[in-house]
Amino acid sequence: MDQALWDELKRIAETRPQITALFDKDASRAQDFSISYDGMLFDYSKTQITKDTRDFLVSLAEAADVPGKRNAMFSGEHINETEDRAVLHTLLRNLSERTPNGVSEAAHKGVREGVAAMETFADAVRTGTFKGQGGQITDVVNIGIGGSDLGPKMGTLALAPFHDGPRLHYVSNVDGADISDCLKGLDPKTTLVIVASKTFTTIETMTNARSAFEWMTGQVDDPASQFAAVSTAEDKTAAFGISPDRVFGFEDWVGGRYSMWGPIGLAMMIAIGAEHFRAFLDGGAAMDRHFQNAPLGQNMPVMLALVGLWHNQGCGHASRAVLPYDDRLSRLPAYLQQLEMESNGKSVAIDGSDLTVHSGPVVWGEPGTNGQHAFYQLIHQGTRVIPCEFLVAAKGHEEGLTHHHELLVANCLAQSEALMVGRSFKEAQQLMEAKGFEGAERDRQARHRVFPGNRPSTTLAYSQLGPRELGMIIALYEHRVFVEGVILGINSFDQWGVELGKELANALTPILRGDASDASKDGSTRMLLAKLKEG
Predict the structure, then answer these.
(1) How far does Cα 47 stand from its chain's mean position?
(2) What is the C-alpha to C-alpha distance for residues 307 and 315, in angstroms, rounded to an integer?
(3) CA 293/CA 314 separation, integer angstroms
(4) pTM of whole model > 0.70?
(5) Residue 502 annotated as catalytic
């Protein structure tokens, strides 16, 4: 995008107003700077965005041809240019009979058939038609990493009130502690293991899969009979001994971090059942329709993206905190770390030229209210401004504990209010006077209790966290990443930054085993190798 537009964005940000002043001037600001869709409310009124700023931000989306790129994605054009692939994870949640324009009918039919196959297997596991050597499956262990783990793990936890299937466990880390701790207490004879690796070569996943196989060996006559796979490498799954009717593949136009809608979500489907999984898909599809049809200024994913660009590239805030006041969304920040930072953590544009602005921010967070007793001190009184993104439901699932939820909601709203209004030195002086402090000591104590305020936040509010709501939330953030990437001019769908470390790890493994020399390594690495080989 034209550098002049980025320069203008920064110029506008230099004169940004006080958030409270914007509310003072506009009694309808909350309504004007929020978007409602299908039971979900996105409020971005507690930011320093004015009407003129919003108009300029929308013009950035228009200048980058977000609508055109959006249509190209949904129609299956190869917008992942560095890998020459389409980007069609949205097709995984489109179960209508009508094939989207530009997409092959065969691809759409394959998606629907794939969901049906998943449902057949999930139902067999849930009802006991598919059994282990010891009878009905009681536990499912999903082995994957990255997109093959973060999405389904996050979704399984988020939808815990809907679990009525076997217990679910997730293993991702190659650290032996992960799989060892997971398998303790499980019965090999009633455990199903799902190995999720598109290529069936991911070193962490396959190392854990072989360890799980060894754990079953001796306890189960045919360990492979209690394994399923999510993979496209049918030759490798066959060599592992997994029957083809327990192998679920997906196309190369589904990126790992966008894959929980399809076979990667098999474990989640087994936990909550096909009906609830379809509701999850329906929520994602509903957000897709809104993203495709709503005007840019009233488009929830577009405005979420533009708020992010305003804070990062405009105001220079280098990180953003995702703060779900919903304990079952405790893994959402980790999921979004991959979705956003692996997608938009780039330094070159699609044409290979250097970016002239910073790319994606650091994304982090924890659920409320836990974070209030950990890092909110920095958010409220630290020297750096950290835009916050709150998520909260109107009601919880726990009958008889409504007072818990009322307290939760009150805390969520209080935090965004406190970030905005702050506390002045004069107000802090009055507090200290009320406590009996006078003169210089009153002022010293007051300074510690000043809150700068004018710190931006957004809030995403919804009725109750269920499968459909979760689908809407995940699709919302996916499209946010896409819009930010389009405006930045980068490819949000490759991840070459993960490759070098893998290559170097492969070279270091034989050195650790004593099968190769460390002569080519730097002094620090040689010293660390020596120390770690000593034990």
Answers:
(1) 23
(2) 10
(3) 27
(4) yes
(5) yes
CA distance 220 to 134: 9
Tokens standing for 103? Answer: 């997409």
Helical H runs in 128-233?
A: 150-158, 176-183, 203-216
Catalytic residue among 25, 358, 502, 533: 502
Cβ burial 355-368 (10 Å sphere, 16+ → b, else e): eebebbbebbbbbb
Residues 329, 158 contacting (CB under 8 angstroms): yes
The residue behind tokens 């054009």 is 77
Mean pLDDT of 450-455: 98
**Mean pLDDT computed over 387-392:** 98
105 counts as catalytic = no
Catalytic residue among 342, 389, 469, 484: 342
pLDDT digits (tens, 9 = 90+) for 230-266: 999 999 999 999 999 999 998 999 999 999 999 999 9
CA 150-286-279 angle, to 5 degrees, is 60
Position 178 scores a pLDDT of 98
Work out the mean pLDDT of the chain and round it to a whole number.
97
Location of structure tokens 């080989």: 533
Of 208, 218, 240, 236, give the one whose Cα is nearest residue 227.
240
Residue among 14, 105, 373, 503 flagged as catalytic: 373
Distance between start and end Cα atoms, the chain: 53
Q: Could you give the CA distance from residue 149 to residue 155 in angstroms, rounded to a whole number?
A: 10
- Please state, in angstroms and rounded to a whole number, the distance separating the CA atoms of residues 143 and 171: 5
Nearest 5°: the CA angle 156, 157, 161 is 90
Active site residue 342: yes
DSSP-assigned letter for residue 48: S
Structure tokens at 320: 């953003």
pLDDT in tens, 330-389: 999 999 999 999 999 999 999 999 999 999 999 999 999 999 999 999 999 999 999 999
